[in-house]
Amino acid sequence: MTLFPTVAAFEAALEGLPAADEAARGAASRRQTQLTKPPGSLGRLEDLAVFMAGWQGRERPRFERARAAIFAGNHGVAVHGVSAFPVSVTTQMVENFRHGGAAINALADAVGLELVIADIDLETPTADFTTGPAMDEAACLAALNIGADVVVPGLDMLVVGEMGIANSTSAAALCLRSYGGTAADWVGPGTGVDVAGIARKIAVVQAGIARHGDCPRTPFETLRRVGGVKSLRSLARWWRRGWPGCRWCSMDSFRRRRSRRLRRRILASQSIALPDIVRLSRGMSDCSPR
What we know:
Blueprint: H1 7-15, H2 22-32, H3 44-56, E1 66-72, H4 88-98, H5 103-111, E2 114-119, H6 137-149, E3 157-163, H7 167-179, H8 183-186, H9 195-211, H10 219-226, H11 229-241, H12 251-256, H13 260-270, H14 274-283
């Protein structure tokens, strides 16, 4: 299925992103006061229950069918030595996924997630975004549509992930162009590069942003110029599912919080961990009044 046949269709989808169901959130919050437990005794799980109720649009969130989708692809910007490992590691990791040897395999098994692994033309990386766009328009739309196709009817939860050498460099460029700040705010050690490697990553991100500084700052142009094929597929799944993905994915919230420390605190404090979901789905129903 082609969810985004044109750039205009993609931009229209951006305008139509849904909001949380406040009625369901309210019902879930009221239900917390009726459960046979001391108020607040389940800690953050109570917040997660309300959060998921709002996005699933029902008082009692459920996880009867959940899927983890992991895409792998390579980045042309890897030629600048921004990773501690060569691009061949991407292929090796995909094989590890397929043989059940990675952390995502263990997590998916523990939670009961259906795991989908897709390698995206690993022999053809995106272009080096310091010299031109990472993708042309057609390739960018194709990436978005392949990601959307991973979402099937009946999913209660979707876990997204990606793998690819130089992925954190592309992610830093996306964040810098979208949210502002400096390259140093967004660049980290990634696979474990040393101080010199971090300096190279900062320089590469700065060069990429400068290279595309005069280009339109629309979401689509940002994605195709400094993004990666697997990050686009991850993004497209959220539109297909009807969820924005994470409650911290707010451009305004990042603009109000310029410091690197606060950005990291936001991400760390509001992400949803799989063990939390396990306890939520398996434990909270046990104390529900009938």
